[in-house]
Design goal:
It is a single chain. With 338 residues, the chain is of the alpha/beta class. Helices cover 35% and strands 22% of the residues. It has helices spanning 2-11, 26-41, 82-95, 111-118, 137-141, 179-195, 232-242, 258-269, 284-290, 317-335; strands at residues 45-48, 54-57, 64-69, 99-103, 126-132, 145-151, 153-162, 201-203, 207-210, 220-229, 248-250, 253-254, 276-279, 294-300. Strands 1, 2, 3, 4, 5, 6, 12, 13 and 14 form a 9-stranded mixed β-sheet that branches. Strands 7, 8, 9, 10 and 11 form a 5-stranded antiparallel β-sheet that branches. Helix 3 (82-95) links the parallel strand 3 and strand 4. The longest helix is centred in the C-terminal third of the chain and has 19 residues, at 317-335.
């Protein structure tokens, strides 16, 4: 399948180990240019909107879209975003209807899809996105594909711990007020709070220590917080349990329309059990769904314990080929529904 060769071509852009196509960058631009050529080869009319999003439009049901993004995290994986784009081109060419969309800057906050929504569109009637799961749920379930039910909500903020600086050699242990020791206890408390809320997760990804000297007792520590949950009630509960004021919050988005039913029917049509699962990561599909678009997502099984945002990201050729067939079936159902 030429799809795999195209994934290889995209993976080489940017150089270095892993995918290196950050937004904005020349590498992301080069990936969009390469995809534009593939859209032309597929016989699609190529457009670029004022936000930099790339579109490949057919002559029938142009308001039914499928696609993803081509930017990546530094040293990212082969499939994240890119699979959804190359699969979309295959599907629209196969079905002979609909449009392919390649959004800008998904990894840095869904820049392209947010800008499209904020500008008033035009938005699609329906949108399907194929993506690697980026987690172990499907692998654990023994399922090659799954239907996404919800994109979890998340909030970000910080905790700040204060102590008293002192000389590392001359201050007795029983006389210290070490902010980093207090922060270590807080990190464990954050973890335990997430365990207590079913389906929730919490991450401390950054630790900033002041004054930062190797021979100075820390006087101030800042902990970053990223907390996520499948619904607003559990997100509220987690934020309350940790006790912080979010600087940024995105509400959960549920998929429940005709597009989701098309995905579920297409999976069942292959004789497979329909596995429903949430997405713990944000996606352009969630931005469109929150704006009222009938959107849905199809996940393909991730291997290597579900690792993603890493060169070790992996899905099998067989699972990918099956996922493209399921996507094509669901997409055709939507593109011919009127």
């Amino acid at each position: 399948m030429r799809l795999f060769g195209r994934l290889d071509d995209l993976y080489t852009i940017g150089g270095g180990p892993g995918a290196n196509r950050p937004h904005p960058s020349t590498a992301e631009d080069d990936a969009h240019s390469l995809a534009a050529g593939w859209l032309e080869e597929a016989g699609l009319a190529v457009e670029v909107d004022r936000h930099g999003n790339l579109l490949g439009v057919s002559g029938k049901s142009r308001d039914v879209w499928t696609g993803s993004h081509l930017d990546s995290v530094p040293q990212g994986g082969r499939f994240d975003g890119a699979l959804g784009v190359v699969a979309a081109i295959e599907v629209v060419e196969r079905v002979g209807a609909g449009s392919v969309v390649v959004f800008r800057g998904e990894e840095v906050g869904c820049v392209g899809s947010r800008a499209l929504v904020a500008s008033g569109g035009p938005l699609p009637r329906s949108y399907l996105e194929l993506h690697v799961e980026q987690g172990p749920v499907l692998s654990t379930a023994g399922a090659p594909v799954g239907a996404v039910t919800v994109i979890v909500g998340y909030a970000r903020g910080e905790l700040v711990l204060h102590g008293r600086a002192g000389h590392a050699g001359t201050t007795p242990m029983d006389g210290r007020d070490d902010a980093l020791v207090a922060a270590a206890a807080e990190i464990e408390r954050v973890r335990d709070a997430a365990f207590a809320v079913p389906g929730a997760v919490a991450t401390v990804g950054q630790v900033e220590v002041e004054p930062g000297g190797a021979n100075v007792i820390p006087s101030r520590v800042r902990l970053s917080l990223d907390v996520r949950a499948p619904d607003a009630e559990r997100l509220d509960a987690l934020i309350s349990a940790i006790g912080f004021e979010p600087a940024y919050r995105v509400e959960p988005v549920r998929f429940a329309g005709a597009a989701t039913e098309a995905v579920r029917d297409a999976i069942a049509g292959k004789g497979l059990a329909v596995v429903d699962l949430p997405s713990g990561a944000g996606h352009d599909a969630g931005i469109l769904a929150a704006a009222g678009v009938d959107a849905a997502m199809l996940f393909v099984r991730s291997l290597n314990d579900g690792v993603s945002h890493s060169p070790d990201e992996l899905s099998s050729d067989e699972d990918v080929a099956l996922a493209v067939d399921v996507l094509a079936d669901a997409f055709e159902r939507l593109a011919t529904s009127r």
